[in-house]
Request: fold
Amino acid sequence: MKEIQLAIPVFYPMAGALITYLIGKKSREARNYLADFIVVSEFFMLLYGAVCLQGTESILEGVCGMGLHFTMDGFRGIYGVVAAFMWMMTIIFSREYFRHYRNRNRYYLFQLITLGATIGVFLSANLYTTFIFFEIMSFTSYVWVAQDERKESLRAAQTYLAVAVIGGMVLLMGLFMLYTSVGTLEVSELYEACRNYPDKRVLYISGSCLLVGFGAKAGAFPLHIWLPKAHPVAPAPASALLSGILTKAGVYGILIISCYMFYGDTKWGSMILALGVVTMFGGAVLAVFSIDLKRTLACSSMSQIGFILVGTGMQCMLAEENGLAVHGTFLHMMNHSLIKLVLFMVAGVVFMNTHQLNLNDIRGFGRKKPFLHLTFLMGALGIGGIPLWNGYISKTLLHESIVEYSGAPIFVFVEWIFLISGGLTVAYMLKLYLSIFWEKNTDAAKQVEFEGMKKSYIDKQSMFAIGASAVILPVLGMTPVKTMEKLAGISQGFMLMHEEPHIPRFFGMVCLKGGLISIGIGVLVYLFVIRTVFLRKKAGSASYYVDAWPKWLDLENLIYRPLFERILPFIGVFLCRIGDSLIDSIIVLLRKTLYKDCKIPHRTGSLPKLDAVIGTLLDKGAVYLKKREESVSYRWKLGRKALERRESRDMIRFSLSYGLQLAGIGMLFILVYLLL
Amino acid sequence: MYIQAWILCSIFIPAAAGLLFLVLPARKMREKKMSWAAVLALVLTVASVGMLLFSYSRGTKAQLTLFSLTEGLDISFRLDDLGAFFLGFIAFIWLLGGIFSVEYLNHEHHKRRFWGFYLLTLCALQGLSLAGNLVTMYLFFEMMTLVSMPLVLHTQTHEAVMAGLKYLFYSMCGAYMALFGVFVFYHFGKSMEFLPGGVMDSAVLAQNGTILHLGIFLMILGFGVKAGMFPMHAWLPTAHPVAPAPASAVLSAIIVKGGVLAVMRSVYYVAGAELLKGSWVQYAWLILALITIFLGSMLAFKEPVLKKRLAYSSVSQASYIMLGMAVLNPTALTGSLLHVLFHAFIKTALFLSAGAVIYQTGYTRVGQLRGIGKEMPVTIWCYTFVSLALIGIPPASGFISKWYLAEGLLESGVKTFSWLGPVVLLVSALLTAGYLLPVTIDGFLPGEDYNYQARKKREPSVKMVLPLIILAAGALIMGVFPGGLITFLGNITAAVV
Reply:
């Protein structure tokens, strides 16, 4: 039991998923309760594990070839708990959200399997185990995206799957190379093994392969394409998990590469930093442009992943003095998971009632709904980095780590991009918040309908899920040193940080300055860009939001789809068809030229002349001598004989020439061999 | 003590049963009973194989010389680890295919002929696995071609007959190429017996490098025809799909492995890996294998007919095995042997599920299969599991073999190929996902406009579903617990490289 105790939270939900599925065929109510029970018990199991089983390991020898290896430490424990918590809340919320959906059984099945796989990723102690559960997670979560089977869902799901499969393959290539070069995939041994490995080039190549694989899942530029497509079409509870936790599984992998393979490697650090900056800024800009509630949140996720990558990059660059970056990265991961959980569930409530996500359609939905208003506000303030909410703390830590590293112009630039992205975060959250909760819908009848849903728009259970998740955010944010820094301190060992961290004064002027600059930028952007450019007036008095992003400027439709759907297959198939018909066409060519079948003469009226004359004479003689009838004709008999002779002659000639040619080629070979 | 009897039983029970089917007058057999009689023969064969393997595992030496053609040309059987490995899974899969056929053949005419040749082909394969020397192996190899051809032209349509002729032509051509190699090694070798590591003296190797290289290359090419290796692969996508589904399954999953076994025997048990290491033969072989892998996957990706798509997939997958053998490295060779087994399970299951779909709906093209998962859930679930295994998604089995193949390639240090090989493997895996998954996706996610009222439950009967479930479960479980298998195969490969 001791040896496998960490494997239990991994396989328990998977086994539970099958039972849930089977029960679901009989009774829906029973299924829902069972699913609730599984996620709640899973949560407490992980809580117990995180508190009491620190430092234990579980090795399943020989399973899947190289064996599965799980371990429990601060980071893994906390992330396991966060994952289980998110699953618990979303499953509780799912009951109401899915009330009118088809194929719910399928949804629960894959939801629970993915839970097990995700826990498997976060508890994994070697990259082999990580990879196995990472792949399971990718494939099972595919079904979430496609759940409602609309055309755009299926298309988005296709993109999601393609990115997952391609990412997975590249990741596997990286693992092959890493394993053959340094000889281990154990995370705890990687640091030593990579430091002593002489050929850095191989490490960089394999590291980049791993980065592509994990980065694709994390949603890093330029493989972020699935993110803004998949989230809006997936059911809201699934979006919350996709963006809150599955992307973090990718980040987990990136952290392993950066902290263990490239600890203190400035080159690697700058690459991650550059990726992070592009992702962070790009995501924020996309979010500002978006007028779809869930798409905005999805782009926001991309942007926040960028923040986390910036932190990861800074960790590599700061090497031993990376305390701020380590804490910032970890806390921002955790904060983002918790915040997105709330925001996506609120979006789910909106969608559940209106079946719309476009800001113009759902505008004013939140008016006179204090509960929804408050919970959304918690999330928005959290992600916007407003002091006293949790996002502020982690962003401050990240910001301080950049400032601490260097005052070189390039880092001043990075710092400013960081602040501007933070500002854009404030701006797009402000846009969502004001349009949903303060502005009135352009359609007055709709507004009346919205305001009429006093209590009916949400049931008690969902209220609990959203409310409980939302309360955490300000609690964390208001007690940064007591809660957040403690958690970060527990988990820092995973990122190879061992000394006591230096805790900045979060509410001192130095730290507040960065936050306030961001907020200032955000308010300015909102007032002077969003309200003027994106909010157009119609001929009447009503204004509406426009999608100003050019339609053609879409990395997926512009580059990836044409490349992978048309150009590459076309070239490949063209070359392969040639190879495929090589021998067949040689055979056809030979039969048309050298080995031409001789025409076998048909029995025509024209007989060979000599035979005809002799035959006619014989016939006449026979008639004359024996008075026989015309029907037994020597002429005809002779003619046939002659034809047969000719046929066989042709055949002999045909096979003789064939044989001679073969013999000739054979002799040629012998000659060549003798000469050599 | 009775081990020789078991050898004879496992070869001649299917032979005798097959001949009886062909010779006995038709009116003596009722259709229903006939099928079960055939299954009974298969069960008896599996039982005798089981007994044989059981006595072999306890250390009994299994050798039997039947008769001598002339001095030094014996027809003899000998069981070693490699033979035991092939023997076991071939008989087992043959039995599952047989159970599936009981139902499936209701669609076909000439049942008697089908069963006759189905059993005879098993006999040829058992002989091939048990063969103790090159001559015996060659004999059974030729026999395999001849007795499996009637399975290809079973439906007797014009297309099937032409495909059968093409099959015959390519196979014969290959066999004669290989025959040249057999002569060469008969002349230069110490004996014709299979020995791990080869039968050649190092002195002979040094003096006659050129002719031996030519000989072994022709053997690889010639026997490789059966394994569908480029450039002589074109018969495979023509011949496999026209046969009845159970026959295509065993053609694609097992007979292809007959070619693999023959190449394996000639390279590792006659010529010896030393002869090929670093020579032009190795490089040519690697190139051909890589081309085949890519070509098969790419064309499968573009192929609209499901069974033909699966046949192209076999072309590609069989060359995974060839690639692993061509590296001449124990890890890669272990990967190859693992893939032999996994691919046998997976491809049988894929063809059988395609057969089940054809049997129940008559659909042959991938485009027609929208919503099929709602109608035949168990079948398509099995299809999905083995598809994932073939792509190499952990924890399903294909992942394990791919891992070993790629590790072997990388650690072998063969120039360029050590990294090009894994890259091609992964690109092909990607294409595999591209050609297998659409059936699952369209099958289970037909879109919101799918008419749920019009769907019919079309799950086939237990006789068809059971073999599928066993194969799919096997493909999954062997991936999760491959430990014993890897050790066993590791011993084989350690002895030959």
Notes: Strands of chain B lie at 63-70, 73-78. The radius of gyration of chain B is 22 Å. Chain B has a mean pLDDT of 89.
